[in-house]
Amino acid sequence: MLPTAHYTAFIKRRAAELGFMYCGISEAGFLEEEAPRLENWLNQNMHGQMAYMANHFDKRLDPRLLVEGAKSVISLLLNYYPPEETQQPDDTLKISKYAYGRDYHFVIKDKLKELLHDMQQEIGEVGGRCFVDSAPVMDKVWAKKSGLGWVGKNSNLITPGVGSFYFIAELIVDVKLDYDGPIKDYCGTCTKCVDACPTQAITEPYVVDGSKCISYFTIELKDQIPREVEGKFGNWVFGCDICQDVCPWNRFAKPHHEPQFNPHPALKDLTRGDWQEITHELFSELFRQSAVKRTGYAGLQRNIRFVTDDVPGATDAAAD
After folding, report:
1. What is residue 45's predicted lDDT score, i.e. its pLDDT?
2. Is 130 annotated as a binding residue?
3. In degrees to the nearest 10, what's the CA dihedral of 12, 14, 20, 24?
4. Among residues 62, 118, 133, 174, which one is catalytic?
5. What's the pTM value of the predicted model, to 2 decimals?
6. What does the radius of gyration of the chain's CA atoms come to, in whole angstroms?
7. Where does tRNA bind (predicted)?
């Protein structure tokens, strides 16, 4: 077996042992097709207050500017779809499924570091960096290039027979490997995600205006939530899964096997009234290591008031 084939097989086998659903590899290089798309998206201010999306434009398009001598982008998927018994009932306030358990940044970064260490043990000197949604890396694009799925009309990566309820992470390394190729788009004529979005954030198939997304309003936006979207959030107070929940491909989603993604036992039992009366102490207990901490206690309170609309000042700023 050629060294590249041996190394590639080792990486994919070890990734599976660490719990990743899939591993795909593509050659590091400039994302020529994405450059004009990203520029146009930014020029239309579809990133809203997410100023970081406009930073490091060149690095976002070329991983060789992030890792010296980069030759390969290893893309990995980690399932977070919760078992049915841990999901929140529809009649209570809801947070996105990805935030049920321990913050994925910590969970995945640990796994990536272990994979990189194992590569160095098996291959020898390997230079590289781990990325988990924390640097200018276009993770969905790289996952698509490496054959892990296609980018759907809701802008999420979708994998045949799996759906889209997973995290995407990367290892960018200076080792040449065997590369995978992309698969075709299987969205077909379906527009369920486009039709279901209550804020019309999917402005056209494959184009999402991030500044109109419920996830943006409830997580990224630190100012007032605009009154024009009042009544459109349903029960969502942190993130939103609507465009994934309606996607036909997610009927194939299977429960994850990562204990760290299990929610606090009390989370699924919170009633609407419990959410409205949540204290800082309970917030800290429920979401001690959760991604929900990103919005802060004051931010979550703002979101709850906006959705329940029973307390004056529902659009107060979310600053802690």
Report:
1. 84
2. no
3. -20
4. 133
5. 0.92
6. 20
7. 222
